[in-house]
Design a protein that fits this description.
The structure holds two protein chains of two kinds. Chain A is α/β, with parallel strands linked by helices. Chain A has helices spanning about 1-5, 45-50, 75-85, 100-110, 145-150, 165-185, 220-225, 245, 250-260; strands at about 5-15, 15-25, 30, 55-60, 95-100, 115-120, 205-210, 230-235. Chain B has 15 helices and eleven strands. The two termini of chain B are about 25 Å apart. The chains are: A alpha/beta, B alpha/beta.
Chain lengths: ~260, ~400
């Protein structure tokens, strides 16, 4: 188990420190988690660690870390990670982001692809594809819990039940939610400027989507995919917003075949 | 003691509570009949003027997307009353600064009301309750800091009289601030801020503003008022004057106990109607994570006032003062002594379906038979004597009501 959980190091950067989890060996896989918090300890990551060196920062505010005083929104995370990628001396890494981590990855990629070789976006938010009155992305902060479970999961019984959680876990989940709110509040879960910048992505890009994702649907994914030159998209059946959790084998298969 | 008549200006003509999930945020406004609503508005304005006739002061507030308070723009109500009333102080409690986009607009509105009323405005600033986050679409995280920054800009706008100044803060930007009109009262209207914990009381005490506590009851009033007094003493080196503290409760006075109970039960609509699910009561960053976790786990599905409130329980907690004039006086005095004293009683004297006639009778009895004794009480206030009185009363041990009143804790 010790090797599964990987090694965590704290990297001091101007303005903030970042905890970075590393596990496995092989080509570098720079992995950005979504709003639910770090995922490097999950079974799919154990499997990926057999063929990649996973390098997974914990976004400040998640997993018990502090939100830096000067952080206001996702732009602060993006600039922190530009520094982080320099500090890590990433070179030809595969960058993979989940949901809001996918948005972050896309923002980093439009800045520069110098340190990455490929890009994978998993059920990612970050763009608006419809009109001003189309709710492209479910309002996770104002949706009743049972509906949220239905939108998030192919099988809603996979949703964590607060009644079964420890106080500490529940508190951390709520703290994660605070950080998610900070990073994604307005414009909600997207940057209106991003579609006009996605043409700058000049590395092979794969979008992986859960077929049952109700937070951001496969149609949203297809529209997002169409904005990135040469990007391809695969849809995983019987998976919702977290295909890496509900269908880890299929997910790992897609990542491995694309990244190699 | 100054007593303030307060009604939230609710729209109680609603379908059965079991037919909707939330009275706030998403209850469709097809349930609002504008003709009934017009009657309601006129009745509430009449009530405030009736309160003035009885010698009471006036208190108003603002909420959004809710049937519990159909005043989404408190300056409008206050503006009407600034003209229609003649002598009462008009307390706006308050302007939800964290959720309002432009503090200079609030500075202008409040200055205008102060001028129209010829200096009768008391201006409250609040962060706003959690259910207002969705209507305002404002990030709840750091809401308190945002509120104070807006406050700083408003005070400067009120007190700058020699042309434009520039304000470029973290949240609010105005590069040419020069409001017309300026306030009638100098240097500016008295300021009130709601407080819900010892910590939030400190900056309010440091500014010497009135700290107003809503429905903290016996379980929480001491730490909050003590926090204010300690913060005041630390900054100013003297005891906080009693008129710096205010307490808001539901009040119903009747000729006999049975009638009082009937009226009190009707007032409880304020609590029992407040059906708000977790998706609106727990926006990210409004509550500290530990409190948010309790709400997420919450047995009743969200934060807020318990839907099962009973009159006896709420009276025992000091959230409702209800009975004959003698009884109500004794209840208020007991709470006053226990809390260490306060100079303002904010009375929710009307809620739900309580009629004009019932409200009028209750407030008449209050102002005739209770109010004079409360005025004597505060006139004879002595800080040292009060400390002894308070020390002789041990802490009350009341059952924890989980998230009761958590929306007022910040």
């Amino acid at each position: 188990m010790a090797e599964n959980s990987g090694n965590t190091t704290r990297i001091d950067l101007p303005g903030a420190a970042v905890d970075v989890v590393r596990k496995g060996s092989g080509p570098k896989l720079f992995m950005l988690h979504g709003g639910g918090g770090p995922v490097a300890g999950l079974p799919f990551a154990d499997e990926l660690a057999k063929s990649f060196e996973i390098i997974a920062p914990v976004h400040p505010g998640f997993a018990g870390s502090a939100i830096p005083d000067h952080f206001d929104d996702l732009r602060d995370l993006i600039f922190l990670y530009l520094d982080l990628m320099d500090a890590l001396e990433l070179d030809d890494a595969v960058m993979m982001g989940f949901s809001m981590g996918g948005w972050t990855a896309a923002e980093l990629a439009v800045m520069s692809t110098a340190r990455i070789s490929k890009l994978i976006l998993v059920d990612s938010v970050g763009v608006k594809v419809g009109g001003r009155e189309d709710r492209d992305i479910a309002d996770v902060f104002a949706t009743r819990p049972d509906e949220l479970a239905r939108l998030t999961w192919h099988d809603p019984s996979n949703a964590p039940n607060p009644a079964d959680m420890t106080d500490a876990d529940l508190e951390m989940m709520q703290a994660n939610r605070v950080a998610l709110g900070l990073y994604t509040w307005q414009p909600y879960m997207h940057n209106p400027k991003l579609p006009g910048r996605l043409h700058r992505i000049d590395v092979p890009t794969l979008l992986i989507w859960g077929e049952s994702d109700g937070l951001v649907t496969p149609d949203y994914g297809r529209a997002f995919c169409g904005m990135i030159p040469g990007a391809e998209m695969v849809v995983i059946p019987e998976a919702g917003h977290l295909p890496q959790v509900e269908q880890p084998d299929a997910f790992v298969g897609h990542v491995t075949s694309f990244a190699n | 003691m100054k007593a303030w008549f307060f009604t939230e200006d609710a729209y109680p003509q609603l379908p059965d509570q079991d037919t909707y999930r939330s009275i706030r945020v998403n209850l469709p406004n097809k349930h609002y009949d504008p003709e009934t609503g017009a009657d309601n508005y006129h009745q509430f304005l009449d009530m405030w003027l009736m309160a003035e006739d009885l010698g009471l002061e006036i208190m108003l507030n603002e909420h959004h997307q809710t049937a519990t308070c159909v005043v989404p723009a408190v300056p409008i109500m206050a503006g009407i009353l600034a003209r229609e009333s003649k002598t009462a102080r008009i307390l706006v409690l308050g302007n939800p600064l964290a959720n309002l986009p432009r503090p200079t607009r609030t500075a202008e509105e409040m200055a205008m009301i102060d001028v129209i009323s010829r200096g009768r405005l008391e201006c409250g600033f609040v962060r706003g309750v959690p259910y207002e986050i969705a209507p305002a679409n404002v990030l709840p995280y750091r809401g308190t800091e945002r509120m104070w920054e807006a406050h700083d800009l408003i005070i400067k706008a009120w007190t700058t009289h020699d042309g434009p100044f520039s304000f470029e803060g973290r949240w609010f930007h105005s590069r040419q601030v020069n409001i017309w009109p300026r306030p009638y009262q100098q240097p500016h209207p008295p300021v009130w801020v709601t407080i819900g914990s010892a910590n939030t009381a400190v900056p309010v005490a440091e500014h010497e503003y009135v700290g107003a506590v809503f429905l903290a009851g016996y379980p929480r009033i001491r730490p909050i008022f003590d926090g204010y007094r300690a913060g005041y003493f630390a900054k100013h080196g003297s005891d906080a004057p009693i008129d710096r503290l205010a307490y808001c409760a539901l009040v119903y006075v009747a000729d006999d106990e049975e009638e009082a109970k009937t009226g009190g039960e009707q007032l409880l609509w304020y609590m029992t109607s407040n059906k708000v699910p977790v998706e609106y009561s727990n926006p990210p960053g409004y509550h500290p994570p530990a409190v948010a976790a309790q709400i997420a786990r919450g047995g009743r599905g969200g934060a807020g006032i318990p839907l099962q409130a009973t009159l006896d329980d709420q009276m025992a907690r000091g959230n409702v003062f209800c009975g004959t004039p003698d009884q109500v006086y004794e209840q208020i005095k007991a709470f006053y002594d226990y809390s260490g004293g306060f100079g303002h009683l904010l009375m929710m004297g009307q809620a739900g379906h309580l009629s004009f006639e019932q409200t009028h009778r209750s407030m008449t009895l209050f102002s005739r038979d209770v109010y004079p004794r409360l005025k004597e009480l505060t006139a004879s206030y002595n800080a040292d004597a009060m400390k002894e009185t308070r020390a002789a009363l041990p802490d009350k041990d009341l059952a924890d009501l989980a998230n009761f009143g958590v929306e007022f804790v910040r």
